[in-house]
Amino acid sequence: MKNLPNNSVNYTQGLKGAIKSQAADVSITVTAQPQTFPVTISLITASNGNINIQAPSSEVDVQATGQTTGAVVASGSVTMNGAMFKLALNATTGDDFIQGGTGVSITEPSGSTGGDLQIGSDIASDQITLQTRGSGNILSQGGTVRGVNPSDLASLTAITDQGNIGDLATNSPLMTALTSAQLQTTLSGPGSVDLKNNNPASHGFTLDSGTQSGGSFTIETSADFAVSSLTVGNSTASSLEALTLIADTGTLQVVTAASVQAVRSTLTLQNLDASNGKIVIQQGATVLAATTDTKAVSVSIFRGASANQNAGVQPANVIISVTSPGFIAWGTPDDTGESITALPGTPTNVVSAQKRPVVFDAKQDSTKIVLGGGTIVQAQGN
């Protein structure tokens, strides 16, 4: 175990082995080339202050197997900047891997060729920024991105140029454990976002806002899920896009006056719990999938594993507008003769299928999909 002699060290011959410091502020700069001197940091702790690790040309391979204090822990901020990160699994159950009291930022420098950020154990803070360059991906390898405490209101920013955030193709989402997040994701290329939020016990998840330029976008939560603003897709992207919001159970809701929009993309609101799960579009909220070309967009709102396209029964308190070949499927009616529930409001709820379909499926319990009054649910084609 090497002790840092002071709070600022420059390594030009690579950095290997265990490093420990109790200094208020820790700053490490590595200028070695990755193919010759990969960087291995086993343990850095600071009881106070900030940690700054700079390795702009090197791979940063962080390992903390068996440690009881976490790999990189600071009461202030943690900043890591390197060409590639491999955050290895911490074998001690329950330990934080990287923790910053006021923020964690793990980024690649501008101009990098695009190495992956591989998250093998927890990253914990109130404010978290993850960024790769080029085709680099942000991937979970057993680790979770979360707040320091379950009740923290974390801000998560994830950015990649041409890569993916999570891996939809292999069903390997970026794992998070947040109660509320100001989520910002940016993909300049055709990549996808796949995020799974495992809520702490008795807490739901609130997506305060988010934007996404292209690719597909999937967020799944293990409990209640509330969305206040989200726009996915753009008017020029050529790749197939899909916006999918999933609650494993509880209530999936678009909150009052919120807007969820999929541009040139399908839009799906799904609650996997076909027995007790609920989907609510709150008063004045908008759910919209739209395209100005021939893209096959649609809106699907359903419970269970998949949606059945049954004509069903139009509820009261809804104005409909349909232009062929668009259609509205309300779902198989329940014992009351209703397919879904629509509450009165000013203006009246509107469901519109303009050359594209809108599908509801409450699995024969009309109380489990609710339009809260003054809502707009629309699929718009050209």
Can you put this structure into words, describing what you see?
Mean pLDDT is 80; it is low at 34-39 and 89-94. This protein folds into two domains: 1-166, no CATH class; 204-382, no CATH class. The strands form three sheets. The chain has a 22-stranded parallel beta sheet that branches. Strands 6-8-10-13-16-18-20-23-25-27-30-35-32 form a 13-stranded parallel beta sheet, with no helix packed on it. The protein is an all-beta fold and 382 residues long. 0% of the residues lie in helices and 48% in strands. It is elongated, with a radius of gyration of 23 Å. The protein starts with a strand and ends with a strand. It has no helices and 37 strands.
Please give the radius of gyration in angstroms: 23 Å
What is the distance, rounded to the nearest whole angstrom, between the alpha carbons of the first and last residues? 66 Å
**Overall strand count:** 37
Q: Strand pairing plus helix content: what structural class?
A: mainly beta
Number of helical stretches of at least 4 residues? 0
Helix content: under 10%
Give the strand content.
over 45%
When the domains are counted, the total is: 2
On the 0-100 scale, what is the average pLDDT?
80
Uncertain regions: pLDDT < 50 for 5+ in a row? 34-39, 89-94
The coarse silhouette is: elongated
Main sheet attributes: strand count, strand direction, barrel closure: 22 strands, parallel
Topology (SSEs and partners):
Blueprint: E1 2-3, E2 8-11, E3 19-20, E4 26-30, E5 39-41, E6 44-45, E7 51-62, E8 72-74, E9 77-87, E10 98-100, E11 103-107, E12 117-119, E13 123-125, E14 127-131, E15 138-140, E16 145-146, E17 153-160, E18 174-177, E19 180-187, E20 193-197, E21 205-209, E22 211-212, E23 217-221, E24 225-232, E25 241-247, E26 251-263, E27 265-271, E28 278-281, E29 286-290, E30 299-303, E31 318-323, E32 328-329, E33 341-342, E34 349-354, E35 358-361, E36 369-371, E37 376-380
